[in-house]
Amino acid sequence: MRTATLTASALVLAALITPSVGMAQDVGGEAHHADEATEIDDVIVQSTRSRRRVQDEPVRVEVLGQEEIEEKLLMRPGNISMLLAETGGLRVQVTSPGLGAANIRVQGLRGRYTQLLADGLPLYGGQATSLGLLQIPPSDLRQVEVIKGAASALYGGQALAGVINLISRRPDDEAGGEIILNATSRQGQDLSAYGAAPFGGGWGGSVLISANRQTEQDIDGDGWIDMAGFERISARPRLFWDGQDGSSLFMTVGAMTEDRRGGTLDDRLAPDGQPFEQNQNTRRVDGGAVAERPLGDWGIAQVRASGVSQSHRHRFGSLIEKDQHQTLLVETSLAADALGGSFVGGLAYQTEDYTSEAFPGFDYQFDTPAVFAQVERELTTDLVFAGSARWDEHSTYGGQFSPRLSLLYRPGPWTVRASWGQGFYAPTPFVEETEASGLSRLEPLSGLREETAETASLDLGYAAGPWELGLTFFASDIEDAVRLQTTAPDRVRLVNLDGVTRTRGTEALARWKRGPWVFTGSYLYVDASEPDDFGISRRDVPLTPHHSAGFVAMWEEHDRGRIGFEAYYTGEQPLEDNPYRTGSDSYLELGLLGEVVLGRYRLFLNLENLLDVRQTRDEPLTRPQRAPDGSWTVDAWAPLEGFTANAGIRIKFGG
After folding, report:
1. Structure confidence by residue, pLDDT tens digits, 429-474
2. In CATH, what number is assigned to the domain containing residue 180?
3. For residues 569 and 586, what is the distance between their CA atoms, to the nearest angstrom?
């Protein structure tokens, strides 16, 4: 129940901590009574490599289960943006109003630092593009795992801010699936079909086919498209095998094609009196596999590998940019009980390759072999320690050491987690601005250094009876952060900032649950600052509100349906290079959701942004003249599409 422009008020809806003994946490982050604990105990975290239950994991992992995924399907069936936006500490930030592109910010850090994985594999590229999360349908997901803070010790340089791992559904004992049909009041349509079946002999498979369409919308009537139009088709089959000796095999391939259109309408002009098309065509194919084999009763060997090839055809007015992104990963690891606890060690090799037809001077190839190790040990009944470290030998930026330490303490009904980590990020030509406006005005890269970060968090939680309370303190320091700098009216360059980009914040959660009713209140405070262009003074990081809050009320019975109400407040945000203002207004968004269950049919209606909040009510989206980086639009700090309704039907079949 959120608008397409997703705001920071959605940061604090999911649980911030894992409840302790007596109150177990389900995969959707909600507390349940002890009679449900047996089912919850089976939630095993995959992203930390330790194979622990979520409540036993020292590293803070927030796990969203299939029940919560299904709820978000009703709001946004075509992509995972809504699912991630309503997870604590995450913000889905629009990066290109012209194309509707967006990325994921973790606890205030920019989206390029977030590693997006599918079953532990980088199937969307090492650095997922700003359209990546808008091109992933959620219908075949079983759970989503989120690690916040520097996770380079686990997954390398792309995980400077954290990791989001999308875990696929596995076939049940009987064949089954579902079909989803959805339509919106803004002329959008979604169709997805998912099916899964066991084949016998330990084999099983699934397939998801999705078709999505959006007609371009000029909501304020100024001739500029406020909601980009697109047509997208994707398919993903998966194959699973489980042997009697504990061996397993997972394989997947995927293909996606999308044509997206923004800019001016056919018969309209940009402020300079010329038409301006802003289009992007994307073609992606990928494949991956994960194989495991037990080594007696003392260890497990694992091999994982993936490859992805993605091509783009960008159009910015009369300029066409074509490029190709390729990612390859091969990794081997061994897990065993050692050193009085559990141990994982392994080797990895990843390569990132980018080639541009229009601007070959920005081509790059990164080859990164790595070695990593992790140990977890139960020091006492209530105290668990985890430590991990990784060495990456980057072909351009040299050797990089990334450690991470975590501690879990569970005294009675309390849960305390502390975590600290360091990581790095290898700069590329792509930041939010260049992804949105292209490379034509970017000066050649020269002398860039790797970005490094240090992050820490402290999580306090209490759960008893119908109550769940959480308080999280988090902090991060980024050295040598890369930023776009203007050098001429039509030229920009990438530079390392001289100083530290600091983020400090607090998340708070209170949830009450009894029977079919759940009430959740949340608050988020973020203080993020960075050096100015000259390294003399500091400024607030743009598009980062200091205060945001949310309230959710939900009634749900599985065999009858659900009714939900949401209210989100987003405080003022500092803006950058906006000719109309230096700061945004605060605003309130309201939403309603309803679903009725009629046997295997489920009818749903979702109402977004009931107050019809829209940025273009206050000022135009387009600039009087193009920005130095080539953009025609200001940043999106509020919803662009206003009130939107969507309705549809889910049809379940088989087991």
Report:
1. 999 889 889 999 999 999 999 999 999 999 998 989 999 998 999 9
2. 2.40.170.20
3. 7
DSSP 445: P
Helix, strand, coil % in the chain, rounded to nearest 5: 10, 55, 35
- CA terminus-to-terminus distance, the chain: 29
CA nearest 356: which of 257, 438, 282, 425? 438
**Residue 256, burial from CB neighbour count under 10 angstroms (0-12, 13-18, 19+):** buried
Q: Is residue 5 predicted with pLDDT exceeding 90?
A: no
Instruction: Let me know how many helices (H) and strands (E) the chain has, helices first.
Output: 5, 33
| Domain membership flag for residue 49 | yes
Q: What is the pLDDT of residues 251-281, one digit of tens each?
A: 999 999 999 999 999 999 999 999 999 999 9
Output the six-digit token pair for 197.
Answer: 């079946």
State the pairing for strand pair 491-496/500-514: unpaired
Query: What are the tens digits of pLDDT across the range 497-515?
Result: 999 999 999 989 899 999 9
Structure tokens at 377: 């040990």
Answer for the pair 440, 47: CB distance below 8 angstroms, yes or no.
Answer: no
Within a domain: 1: no
Q: How is residue 121 annotated by DSSP?
A: B
Q: Is the dihedral of CA 289, 29, 528, 153 positive or negative?
A: negative
Domains: count for the chain: 1
SS3 category, 56:
helix
pTM above 0.70, yes or no: yes
State the sign of the Cα–Cα–Cα–Cα dihedral 42, 47, 52, 56: negative
Domain holding 116, by residue range, is 8-654
Please, what's the b/e burial string for 175-194 (b: 16 or more CB within 10 A of its CB; e: otherwise)?
Answer: eebbbbebebebebbbbbbb
What is the C-alpha to C-alpha distance for residues 91 and 97, in angstroms, rounded to an integer?
16
DSSP 447: S
**DSSP E strands, 410-488:** 414-425, 451-464, 467-479, 482-488
Q: Is residue 209 part of a domain?
A: yes
CA dihedral 35, 39, 42, 47 (to 10 degrees): -100
pLDDT of 521 above 80? yes
Question: Which value, to the nearest 10 degrees, does the dihedral of the CA atoms of residues 621, 625, 626, 628 take?
Answer: -120
| DSSP H or E segment with residue 73 | helix 66-73
Nearest Cα neighbor of 161 from 542, 530, 429, 474 is 474
Alpha-carbon gap, residue 319 to 147, rounded angstroms: 39
Alpha carbon of residue 53 to chain centroid: 22
Which of 240, 164, 181, 249 lies closest to 207, judged by CA? 240
- The answer, yes or no, to whether residue 635 has pLDDT greater than 70, is yes
Q: Compute and round to an integer the Cα radius of gyration of the chain.
A: 24
337: CB partners within 8 A, 6+ apart = 298, 299, 343
In a domain, 621, yes or no: yes
CB atoms within 10 A of CB 380: 8
For residue 513, the 8-state DSSP code is E
What does the pLDDT look like over 115-136, one tens digit per residue?
Answer: 899 999 999 887 666 677 788 8
| Pair 256, 215: CB distance under 8 Å | no
